[in-house]
Amino acid sequence: MAKLNKSGIVLITIVASLGGLLFGYDTAVISGAVGALENYFIGALETDKDLAIAAIFQFKVIISICVIALVILFSSFLLKFFSKSKAYLIIGLFVLIGGAVYYFQFLSLPGVLTENLKNSILGFMVSSALVGCIIGASLGDNVANSIGRRNGLLIAAMLFVLSAIGSAYPDTMNIFFGDSLSAFIVYRIIGGMGVGLASMLAPLYIAEMAPPKIRGKLVSFYQLAIVSGMMVVYFVNYFIVQGQTESWINTSGWRYMFLSEGIPATIFFLALLLVPKTPRFQVMKGNEKDALKVLTNLNGPDRAPGVLEEIKKSFGKKKAHWLYFGGTVVVIGLLLSIFQQFVGINVVLYYAPEIFRGMGMETDASILQTIIVGAINMIFTVVAISTVDKFGRKKLMMIGSAVMAISMIGLGFALYLETTGITALMFMLFYIAAFAMSWGPVVWVLLSEIFPNSIKGVMAVAVAVQWLANLLVSWTFPMMNNNSDLVAMFNNGFPYWIYGIMAILSGLFIWKFVPETKEKTLEEMENIWISK
């Protein structure tokens, strides 16, 4: 491939990867603000009983709306996997049993701010964007096939801008029924919808533009963009709080953290106007001339017609039932998403400053340590990008699982034995390095590769499940970490042991069930599942 063509592909990849940068920015911006948000919102509830009663009622309403939305979305997925009668039976049983548990264990609780409820509100406030991520990712397939990958990313960019302003000023931008805490949660959910759309569409856009030999490297750029966004916001947060009083951070500083996201979101929107729609989407819509033009620009005039014929052939097949290739590929995709989150990565990324503060560091120092975490994340993501097409996907994933398991179990024991400081920091950095060179970027590569074109919509389910797993982990962490009984027994070590066990299971899963996809075309991947 000519150098000019490769440069064009890389340029398009960088623009699409800005969606990943905003994904990283949006998910990590909260890390520097957790303490201030707890003080500003939760602290007010502790001192005002009437405000607490109203906030608890609104919290229950928001959670109920979110639960209903998620049940509808996942019900629509079940209808694509099973026959209507079987799907409705599963949905009915889930609603009946789940509804009863939800009512008696949550809705019927009195409006009293207990320790567990306070931790639950804090956990959901921090992780509320993930509800939007699930919704955005779930809609990703419909958006991709109706208005296209690029136009879907333009919508994501607009959602990012709206969320940035609304999250910064939930009191003055409160157009909803409820207090500013509820408005903040709603705006975070809106931003999450942008993240969810981007997480589905950006890797898909890149994978459809990239030649097979460098596809793994280019899709991994998406993960590099995610960690770059995290790194950028860690610096932004640090410069916002540097030299400022705790009082100023708690009242104004956190607002600037969220507002700053509007800048990269606007750049992303404008840059997207300069890139083409993918050839696969053009073929899907019958625009073969436009598809050939893009392919010629990227692959050269000699290769373009052949690539076009391959795409036409793959889309000549009807969209298959989602279980057409059996349940194996679907289960593998879902478990890749679940394990990527159950190893606990976003606990470290969302709560890093709070974890470091728990080790006795000041606000400035804890956010500075977070920058170190971000730097390690970025460096080892670059390692993954340079090795994913050379060593393959499986080898990197198994090495990553082993190091993550040792690191998380070690971190748990460091906290349990109260030998924090440099020991705990080193375990955390080893963990971040291992994730960054394996499960971080490689899962996105695998998700963009393993699903045949005729069931590509399953990727939306896998990404939605990933965000659901992220929500469960992020929401439950404060409940485990701040629970006075667990702290008395384990000195905050308990949650990290859970994540360490998950890392062990993730390695066994990769070793036993996940096929190697290195250098295979998207069309060749179909043959792997047909032969199984």
Automatic annotation (TrEMBL):
Keywords linked to the UniProt accession: Cell membrane, Membrane, Sugar transport, Transmembrane, Transmembrane helix, Transport
Matching InterPro entries: MFS_dom, MFS_sugar_transport-like, MFS_Sugar_Transporter, MFS_trans_sf, Sugar/inositol_transpt, Sugar_transporter_CS
Family per record: Belongs to the major facilitator superfamily. Sugar transporter (TC 2.A.1.1) family.
Pfam families, per database record: Sugar_tr
Name of the featured protein: MFS transporter
Transmembrane segments: 51-75, 87-109, 121-140, 152-169, 181-207, 219-241, 253-275, 322-345, 365-384, 396-416, 422-446, 458-477, 497-514
GO cellular component entries: plasma membrane
